[in-house]
Design brief:
The complex is a heterodimer of chains A (292) and B (319). With 292 residues, chain A is mainly α. Chain A is built from 13 helices and two strands. In chain A, helix 2 crosses helix 13, helix 10 packs antiparallel against helix 13 and helix 12 packs antiparallel against helix 13. Chain A is globular. Chain B folds into two domains: 46 residues, no CATH class; 211 residues, MetI-like fold. Helices cover 72% and strands 0% of the residues of chain B. Chain B contains 15 helices and no strands. The chains are: A mainly alpha (292), B mainly alpha (319). The interface between A and B is large, with 90 and 93 residues. Chain A: It is found in: Cell membrane.
Amino acid sequence: MSRLRREQIVGLLMTLPALLLLSIFFLYPLFNSFWMSLHKWPLFGKPKWIGLDNYVWMINDERFWQCLKFTLVYTITVTPMLFIVAIGTALLCNVKTWGTTFFRSIYFLPVVMSFATASFVWLWLYSEWYGVIIFLLKAIGFGPEDGQLSVWTDGWTAMWAVNTMVTWKFAGIQMIILIAGLQSIRDDYYEASRLMGASRFQTIWNITLPLLRPSIALALILSIAGSIQAYEQFQIMTRGGPMNETKTLVMLTIGMGFDYFKLGPAAALGVIIMSILFVITLIQLRLFRKAY
Amino acid sequence: MKKYSGDWYWYYAINSVLVILILFPIYWTFISSVKKPDELITSEPTFYPHTWTWQYYDRIWNYDTDSIRTNTWGETSEDEENNKNKEKESSKIHKTTGSVTQTIGIDDAFTNSAIVSVGTIIFSIIVSTFAGYGLTFFRIPFKEVLFILLITPILVPAISLIIPIYKLLKGLGLTDSYLGLIFLHTTAMLPIGIFMMRNAFSSIPNSLREVALLEGTSELRIIGNVMLPLAIPGLLTVMVFAMYTSWNDYVLAFLFINSPEKTMLNIALAKIALGGSQFEMKWGSLTAGSMISFIPIIIFYTLLQRYFVRGITGSAVKE
């Protein structure tokens, strides 16, 4: 056996475990999600080919549109919140002064907490009767004087409550990405803008932000992709309530599959979520590339 | 890098406010978990615990034996035997009814999560090391295609594949098993793991391997004795991310684990949280449980912070 042939075989053997995992637990389900979405899957008996009926059924379902709308509203509101906090802290922490490392590691701290745990923690902070946030809100004059103040009774306030938690939890990741981007900007640009007498705001607007585009794109893609897949935060904190007003697409998918055993429509929903993410990512990459 | 020379006090003022805001929820969780019930359940919260208690930690950590133990206080050894029988009976009942209400303590859930996390860490290190090594040092046909294929899962979130994954696990008999979760977590780890290990190996000169091969060292020995010691930063990044992925997983553990004795930590917390209406929620237990879930990952973070950050920026900065 030639040395090259031997090397090829050994090399392939080394990648084999990874390839097996990938094929079984990723490629096969990926293929199967399309396959299942085109079939009727009864609990017992054989699946039947029904073409696009699952999609049609889903699109004609009011719940789908409600969940889609909420997921999009959530994405549109939480993304700027996250981004503003992240870019603020990134600009603030992009200096070499005593304490910067400490501040950065504190801002990153919530990221390492599990999302579920963070949701439980904030559930306690928001608790109607004993929650400290409710206490503070009342102290500054929100809500009825002696009655109960709850953020969960209204879909809109519930969403903002969750948004706040998500911002607290995830701004750190984006901050790290943006800092990495900031550090790749060469000092001469700042030097030049200083010599031209630009104000700090002008420098940020005309130099930092344009040069930071790739990092901004990445941060936004991460946050939008994450919000389209929102599940844990709403499952734990609002349970989709009140009146399913805060039910996300993924919650609908999982409910459809695991509570009602409608596997076909649920698989179709999965494909729809995947397509939405795919389209959004493409648009964003296009938008941010054009600028060069 | 620019410097805030004249207005450094603004820098520290803003940062201090932010630090307080960020740390407050964690601080509040901690003090809530050590307050006595009458101080905890009140509409006039105190901002530091006036009296301390570890009773919530004790209670959730020993949840399953709790009811039995409260009965045994001050009783004779004869009763103890009775209680042992009672304990046996009660565990039997739980098994036969298959009840999904919480029947295990946080200690067991903690162990379950630890088993799956350690399994994921070991498994992802092995898989990504071999794949990274093979993809760096070997002339494999379609090498680049393979590499790109192996990192595609990063584009398609597992959650949109949840239904076919469920069918697959069912078919393989891997629902309700640690192994199923370990496989899924490792697959989720593949892109970042292989990317990191390939990067780590790429910075090692090939000549090092050639020399070792000429000396007749086996490929496995080269990996173990020559390459891995040089790739430790990459290895630690993989480890940290495997731990993070596995320990923090909620959805997969929630959907694919049914038997109470296999409950994962995050799900056990959810069961505490839902153990009653909103009004009666066991807040002390929940905050104590949250702290217990947070502690291992915070230890990881303090020790290996650099690698958390490297994992995020490393995968962010494309070649």
